[in-house]
Every structure is written in C-alpha cells, then in structure tokens.
User: Fold this.
Amino acid sequence: MWVGHCTTLQCNDTNQALTKQDTMLKAMFSGRMEVLTDSEGWILIDRCGKHFGTILNYLRDGAVPLPDSRRETEELLAEAKYYLVQGLADECTAALQPTVKLLYNRSNNKYSYTSNSDDNMLKNIELFDKLSLRFNGRVLFIKDVIGDEICCWSFYGQGRKIAEVCCTSIVYATEKKQTKVEFPEARIYEETLNILLYESHDGRGPDNALLEATGGAAGRSHHLDEDDERERIDRVRRIHIKRPDDRTHHHQ
Assistant:
C-alpha cells in the first residue's frame, strides 16, 4: 500500500491525524522512522489497505464503529496492532471477548421496594465483583448505572447479546404495588459459564464443534440460510425472575 505524504492545505487534517497519537504512523510521518519512498514522495507500507481508512478515522476522531462480522473485527485488530494503535486494539479485543454486563439503577423505580430488595441488590453487585475476579482475562465485565432497568444482567458472545437475566418484578402487597429485586445466583452462574463457550482459543475464535454439541448458536450458524441466520441473530434468551406468589396479596 502506497500512502502519500500530504503537503497541501487540504491534507493538513490527514497529516495531523497521522501524527496525533504515538503510533507507528506518527513515527513514519514525523521522520523518526526510516521509510521507503518513491520519486514523488509516496511512502510504501507493506500492508493491505482494506482497513486503513478505519485506522485513519480512529486517529482523527478517537472512535469508530466496529465491523459487524467477527472476521473483519479480527482483521481490524491485526491492523491496529501492526500500527500500534492501542486504543483501537483494546476496543476490538473487547468486542471479540465474551462479555457480562450488570446494569443496576436503584433510583429508577416509581414504587417502594420490598424489605429484602436492598440486600438482594447488594448481593448482585457482590457477585459481579466475584465473577470479574474469577474470570479476569477471559470475560469482559462491565458495570453500568445508567439505564431503564433496576437490576439486569446481560451476556454477550461474538458481538451479540446471547442472554439476559432480569432480577426485578412487581409484586402486589396490601393496597399497593412494590418492586421486588431477586438474587438468582444459580442462573447468573449458569449464563456466565454458557458465555465461556464463545471464548476465543489461541486467536482462532470459539470452538464451533463445542458450540454445536452444546446447542450454541455459533456452532449451528453454518447450517442456516440467510433468513434463519437473521432470526438467530435477533433472538435473545431472556429470563425474568419471578416467584409463584408474585401476583398474590402479601406482606414482604
């Protein structure tokens, strides 16, 4: 790939982007690194130019939308590592990792809470911290306090949501509704272990044979036509934790 060293006023933005962060491109275009040029000043970079525009946009804007497919995200990750664009490499790595997200927002509630809801909320947060320590480096854990849910776990693999565990429900106490926060510890553990099926192995991506044997979506995807594949991608396993007496009148 040949890259022009811009000298005109219109290209100043590109020059600034190339030298904005401490990357290999900055070293090349600032004169710190020896480069191969032709008679017109074009610089040879021995790489495919497919993702170079994305690299440039990231250096210019500080953020870019990542590709939809895992393969292209892996390709972009390889380019980001080659050019030493650490921020983009971290974002690609995060997108390729299995991810567990806990959203909790106690103030987002128009009813009063049942008596044990605060304890259960705290137990969910403590479990998140324990899981993040146990699976550190294998699963990306994200804690979010901005959203519509009061307490909800989401599980992502291959860049899409695989499952969701909602820990709140409305119960009917005497003359009023209350919000009940549950602590479905076993279910959360189960979904966290399920998400490990989407873990990359030696940079090769998930084990599709294992996914297929265990019913994982990625292992079945090569058997599906385009419409079925789209339906699969849109499907999320949602679990709402409820007790049999949630619609009965009782005191908590």
In short: The longest helix spans residues 117-134.
